[in-house]
Protein 1
Amino acid sequence: MADPMQETEAMELDDEPEAEVRDGMPEFLEKMLHLTAGHRKETIDGAKEFLKKEFPDWESGCRWEYSAALLGSPVFPATRFIGAWCFQESINNRNVGWLIEETAKLLRHPAEEGSNPAIPIFVPPHLRSAMDWVRTADASRDKRRVIAGVAGTGKTWILTESAARILAEDFRSRVLVLCFNRPLAIYLRNEIHRSMKKKLGGRWKPVGGCRGPSVTVDTFFAFMGWKVPDAPDPDEDFNRKEALKNVLKMRGEDLKAIYGSYSHVFIDESINLCFYNSVDEGKSTSWLGLLENIWDETGCFFLSFDLEQCVYSKIEVTDREREYLGVSQDLKQVIRSPSLVCDSFLAHASKETREKKIPTRECPQVLGMPVVYCEPYLRHVSWSDCDVQGIENVVRIIEEYELRDVKEFVILTETRQLASFVGEGLKRALSKLKHRHSLCDAATLARSHGSAMDGERRIVVDTVRRYQGLQGSVVILFGLPSGQDPLMYLGKSRCSGFLFVVGTEGACEEMRQKEKVYKNEVTPSISRKRKEEPEGAPSLKWIKI
DNA sequence: CTATGACTACCATCCTCCCT
DNA sequence: AGGGAGGATGGTAGTCATAG
């Protein structure tokens, strides 16, 4: 095998200049840290002025990221990176939400002055600082990089760009990229190849169906199951998942013999892989341990987590993942109990807070992302009739937003059955509209991303779970039952622009209530700024059938 | 040769019902 | 009231047939 440290062919990257590898923060981040000390409104305004001067091409507002770089975790002294949206003016502050209340408070008052504070780090539109941070992994003592953030913080973007850069710099790097479901794997593969080709300025040409340089992008199950030894007796029932569990128990050398070794390992939405953990006779086996075993520690080991998703999904987490997440308490408890979950965020905020015993609070109310409009319809006896009305509402939304030049719509349901019903209904209804539309599912969208024909409107109809990890500018949640917070969170967090809920009166009312609480109690300062509907808001009004 | 859809298997989760 | 069993639904995977 080629020595990864040996000299490589000179390859100039066409976009970014070679940055100095350093442990400290880039200068502008230090400046931002100074400007935002105390995190008061006036300091933020000052910081924004500074940013507008530094980045004149960017006027859309702020993203705030929180780093616990200075926490001095005994496990990973290097760095950890926590991201969360605070607000984004470009979409009229609509995306403030989907944080639980305590998180939102934390974001506005991250830490007391003088304590070991969470560092508010400004990340410019292209997330350059996060990229640099990942890039320093190779030269750093601890090569592990964990990015935890709510949806939309750019975790996936950082992953694809970092992987593409590594491959563009050296084709021979053995890079492994894993995630949970197939649509996301397809998307990641396409994005990495696209980005890599761009960096190489078109000099890379795949040869004869070759999948490119030595990058493996797949789902965890497919990657692991692919090489799981088959059952010795073909007639015998073969449970591949059981076989996988046996693989998880193997030791490092055996694993390397089966899977080979990789210099760079990237895992997106990695919290979902905890499904493959198991506990046998008191001994737990973990996907994380397995992947660490096939990592040769010459490159970076990159994980992205969505902590809030952990809250909702009730996922079992082993000690190893707990270490990665950097919480001092029993994360299993943290995850299972909504009243404790905010502590995992506090744990990142300051050492004092982390070590302090936090009194039991009432469960923080799970708050909704501000919804553009809810479109309720009755759904009781004959569901199909009522869902027909729902589809009419969806068509209205699509018509309205096409006038605003939106070309991609995402409609998410709970079940596949409802998804196909909506798909059929839309096909009939949209055939009457003048624009061409193509309906597809999440996997098809991921496969053809970036290759849309001019003027073509794409409408994705799929289940929420299958769309996990992907994002859309206009998302319509169709017929999600109220009270299903995990699903609601997943669905809402898929939206980067306008979110609609088309559903039962109960679900819509619940959404309105949550938004009301959110506006009045969590972000009053932001809510006050938009008394009248901002420009660009739809002219649709509440519809009650 | 490749993409797609229909079918199957297995496991996880949630909800409901029933028993203690 | 609390816990367990069972059903419905979701996810993943695989195989096979078919169409382009």
Note: Chain A has 21 helices and 16 strands.
Protein 2
Amino acid sequence: MPELPEVETIYLGLERLIKGKRFESVTFDVQKSFPNSYNEVDQFMINATVIGIQRRGKALLIELNSNYSLIVHLRMTGQLVYEGKEIRFGGGHPSSSLLNSLPDKSTRVVVTFTDGSKLYFNDQRKFGWMRLYPTSQINSLPFFAKLGPDPLDNLFTWQDLRQRLQKRTQSSIKSVLLDQGVVSGVGNIYADESLWGAQIHPATKVQALKIRDYKALYASLVSVLRLSIEKGGSTDRNYVNAEGKKGNYLEIAKVFRKEGQPCPRCGTEIIKIRFAGRGTHLCPRCQKVKTA
DNA sequence: CACTTGACCTGTCCGC
DNA sequence: TGCGGACAGGTCAAGT
């Protein structure tokens, strides 16, 4: 669920809220959520200062001045929430937030900074993780080494998209869009939304796509991702940003979670099917399967 | 080798 | 009300 726009929103929040802060202590409940040893945490995290934050695909990198970086992947239900003098939870805090008080029962890691502020890593399903790695090794970690380009990179063009998709001509377009090695950051929500925008059926084989399809898909993907960032991302179930607030993109989504409602383009009822093992939303009239 | 399916988890919702 | 099962969907390992 946290896809590119959600992780970008968290990134923007962390940039403002924790950059320059120094770690005082760290506690965690299950090793799976934070697999480093106590020794590594003591040596490379405690008393280290946050010097930079990056997003790469759906992952966050928090760079420390100890030559280590903290990598965070939220997977399905992860949250990274800040609490400090600017932001408090509970105690009658008026809330567009999903959160009442922290920590809660899904809190896996609590990081405390020297100014008393805290960063909570919550993860209901425990698929997500955060982990310290030497900064110099990050680019060679398998996850990052094979990561495709960011679709919002200024240098990324429709020709790049076409060239990368065309390495997978036998596959369906939706499966390929979800492959982080082809393009990074796209998940189930924005795959469905961008394919609707480009009027391409998710099951269409890449080999059946024409030049105009690549151009349309590129334009659609970029605009959907940008629009969602403006809206603070999508809150489907439990996504919140670094301030604990929900995103608003789903209010203006065209097909995702809109089954039974009219297609904004042609009025036909949006359907939900199961495709490539996932819930897939589309307009059966605007998005026909094309064959080569 | 390319692609698809199952496992990892927990909470929610639906039907009986 | 309680219970079993389907479902949610990111990534990697295992299977076809």
Note: The radius of gyration of chain A is 20 Å.
